[in-house]
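User: Assemble these into one structure.

Assistant: Restating your components, then the assembled model:
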Amino acid sequence: MTLSNAFIAIIRRDLVLAYRRRAEVANPLLFFVLVITLFPLGLGAQTKLLQAMAPGIIWIAALLAAMLSLDSLFRSDFDDGSLEQFILSPHPLSVLILAKIVAHWLVTGLPLLLISPLLAIFLGMPEQSVPVLLWTLLLGTPVLSLIGSIGVALTVGLRRGGMILALLVLPLYIPVLIFAGNAVEMAGSGLPVGAQLNILAAILFAALVLAPLPAAAALKMSMNG
Amino acid sequence: MLSLEVKNLCCIRDDRVLFDNLSFNVFSGQALLLEGQNGSGKSSLLKILCGFREPDAGEVLWRGVEINNGTFFEQMAYVGHLDGVKKELTVLENLKIATALGKPGHYSIEETLEKVYLSGYDDVLVQSLSAGQKRRLSLARLLITDNKLWILDEPFTSLDKEGIAIFEALMVDHIAREGMVVLTSHHDITLHGIDVQTIRLA
């Protein structure tokens, strides 16, 4: 079979698996919605403050939701031996991993993107910011999955890798958070946001090319236990 | 003729030398049985043969070339302690993934299921299979992909007597078609008319 067949087969497999484990997969989305809906309650009737904080709140919640979902990227494949079979496949492991990351984003990142306009309205975000918010999430959340894959690949062999994973991955998420948050804020004041979006796109394409390689190497290392 | 050559292999784990200066050759039409007590390094040796572990010294050659550089991974299949099947997928979905990861082999999926006595289970979720049936499914992976070398770590775990007999017959069949098998087993194996080398790891 060709590589593109294998790529598509893995995406399809992971989507079917996600569908059959719906409850588990819905957790990050639920977390995202809960965190954001709690802010207006916690801050009380301070619409101005909430409006000013909205871009940051949504992006921090998205970042934490992405962190929460990372462990599921390789965990079950590691535990049941599927990962051994991936590594033994004649196809390059980095491409197979990229397929897993794409599927992971479709399941965990895309739902955040789809629900975010509703949450933006909850927080009273100005109308002209909402499309920019969607753009930043579209460009930014795949980066979270891609960079996260390196961290998970390094820690999947550890029994309690959760904290180390957070320490490894969060600093690398910060550029995305800064540019995305800034873009949405600027859009609120009617300023141009082309530069921020271009940088986010550049980060996405760099991560798309560069993340699967170290993730594949790290996974091979994790197997060597 | 295909060959797997192991030269002066050494494996050290947690400051303990598991084996040192281990050399052997396996050619097509042969089987190699690794024996030894628990912890003697059988599984570690198989992991080195699969490229999961780097040997501490020595090399593994497939058709005269280092395993990481050649066509080795197109021609081998491994079944280890873990079944490597997804319990939320059906039998058929699991086998389809296996063929997508490798190359389709000698048998079609239907023929393979017949060979391992799982016909009619196509649409059953793996989590509702018994341990022995799951094992037969993971062994089915050997048949549906195109390969010459089988590396098997305790393939008979949780198989019943019949299951073992079925699988022994499949191994004989594979070796007779110019294949080769490297395996560890605590059970006695009977491979009729096959050249079986035995190596005991101390």
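Chain A has one domain: 3-223.
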